[in-house]
């Protein structure tokens, strides 16, 4: 529900700005600017998308996962959708997603906002920093009981990590 509200307010604000600017500079000038930003955005998306695709191919040929290229592609698709929408606010946000330097800045801002939202949610839920969720605590307590050890009864005071491992002598599959 909050996402729908944010989307609706963004669209309304975008149209208010478009109509305000349009009433000051005229209809033909406004249409020209909207079309020009759309074409410029499509050109940038095509150029940046081709570059991101070639970088992804290179990384896949090296046997690496092209995660940053996939995120770049997602940002380009989102930016392209915003640039095709009529409005100056959506165009500005679309250009932030398409221009490489601005895209990195936007990613840092979103990462910082995401961390802040996680901290606020943890405080709201009554958990302090570093406290685990209830399912993690229950699983850990049960694992300690299964082995006959209680919490903190290990040599170094920490619980061992559980999971699969590959010995250095063993060849990878």
TrEMBL record:
Organism of origin: Halomonas chromatireducens
Basic and acidic residues: bias regions: 156-173
Protein name: Phage T7 F exclusion suppressor FxsA
Alphabetical UniProt keywords: Membrane, Transmembrane, Transmembrane helix
NCBIfam families documented for this protein: PRK11463.1-2
The organism's taxonomic lineage, starting at the top: Bacteria, Pseudomonadati, Pseudomonadota, Gammaproteobacteria, Oceanospirillales
Pfam (any one): FxsA
Taxonomic superkingdom: Bacteria
Signal sequence residues: none
Region feature (Disordered): 125-173
TM helices/strands, residue ranges: 28-45, 65-86
